[in-house]
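Records of this kind hold a single protein each, on a pair of labelled lines. Below, a sample record shows both lines together.
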Amino acid sequence: MISGEVWSDSIPSTSGKTYTVSAWGKSQGAAGTNNPAVRAAEFDINHKWLRQTSLYFPKGTADWNQLQTTFTTGDGTAYIGVYANIWKGYGTFWVDDVSLTDPDTTPASTTTSTPTPTPTATQASTSTSTPTPTPTPTPTTALASTSTSTPTPTPTPTPSPTATSAPASAPAPVSNGPTYYVATNGNDGNSGSSSSPWRTIQHAADTVSAGATVYVMGGTYNEKVTIKKSGSSGSYITFAAYPGQTATIDGTGISLNYDGLIRMDGVSYIKISGFTVVHSSFMGIMMSGGASNIIVQNNHISDTSSSALLAQDASYITYDGNEVTNSQTMKGLSGQTNENVNIIRTNNFEIKNNHIYSNANFESIDVKEGSSYGSIHGNDISGAHSAGIYVDSQGKNSQNIDIYQNKVHDSQESGARGIAIGVENSGSAKNMRIYNNIVWNMGAIGIVAGTSYSAGAVDNIAVVNNVAYNNGLVDSWGGGIKIEYSSATNMRIRNNIASQNRNSQIDNAAGGNAAVTNNLVDGSGGTTGGSYVTGSPQFVNPSGGDFHIQSGSPAIDKGTSTDAPAVDFDGNSRPKGAGYDIGAFEY
């Protein structure tokens, strides 16, 4: 699965405004569910995702091609962001000359002819490489660039350095300041240049300042890295594995006590990208003490005694495109009660596009202790213990969290829930949405909005347009979608497909405090609610994880617009045809 994305800055806009989005694209070996694409996404005043317009480039291998389309912003639009990716796919995708043109201005055009020479590439990559945005800006906006004028595109040579030699040619820096290098044959007394690299990542962290990029060459670095310097807005300090090489930070023999093998305490504007982080005696990567504006992207983290990723007492944290496996190997490790991927007492967070699988213990993603104002989306989670995604206010007040477009599946363990919201030890969980998720083959329950052991306020939770299939495989009390907490208020369960779950399809312990409508119920047990339909949803291939519906599905056009998201799991606009479809996909 492609985990890299390149985003523009957020662009202020309004409803009813017309734009033209244009881009050159080139693909190599692109495959998977979706095509490579450049997309213009619309957001509301709170930066919540509304809808998007896409330029779809060919799968497979295709040479440079320019695409362009015009769109008008919809209701509620306050911002636009432009980005490139291969959503739920894999391969290599380059883009260049990406522009978003406001017809009310007259920008100089740079995209009317085939780029000559070959444009510098932006590569959508797997977790072993770092995307390097270099599109050409226009007077309106384009994908992030360090240039303030229109440069002439020049080719970037294929990286050739190894861990034992200095790089012959460097990729574009991912920040806007100087670029430094670390290599296993370097020396901390060197200058840090490509021909004279440093030896340790820690020395680089102690030396560089705002705007710097540190490229770490392939090889194994047996060290703990503590980052004590901050970047600034627009001038992140970036630590990245050199593209195409595997830079491993190995904690073997390093003793940690409630600490991370990479630690950021009280710092801001830091990006960690493309590393392999293994064998930590406690956490893998940790942010704490007021850390803010931290991006942890495209890393592989495995074999950690405690959490792979943990942010505590922090803000503006992004986990994007990381692979997490075999964390929490020391269940009950003294001094910790955390999970695989954690957000603790942290506001303004985003957990997206991560692959989390085969971990040793506890929840896969746990957002807890009052963490608020965040989103959890695009993650693929399998083999979870306790829960795949768990939001627990845990004695504090959590609010305004969206959980969407996640796949949670295949955990045949007692008590395993796909997605759950609860309030342990008092507090409150309010104003949350669970939509466009697919949950299947869980040991207990697919989706729980208000767990049975909640002890505070659970209010204004919407569970909409999800698929819950074949859950409850181990526990007789399990099922598809449930509100277990009888004191929950203002709850909604709409437009969901609950199919072939054991024991029950939909359960509602909140009674009249929950609106249960327009769901497709396929199987016995529980409640149906109002305006429901029954029968097989006619999934394309549920045993293969494909929950698109076929042309004869009773889910088509039977949903309600109330609480419905503007797009489906694939990003396609809702509705299509005469009405909204039930489930995660519009037909």
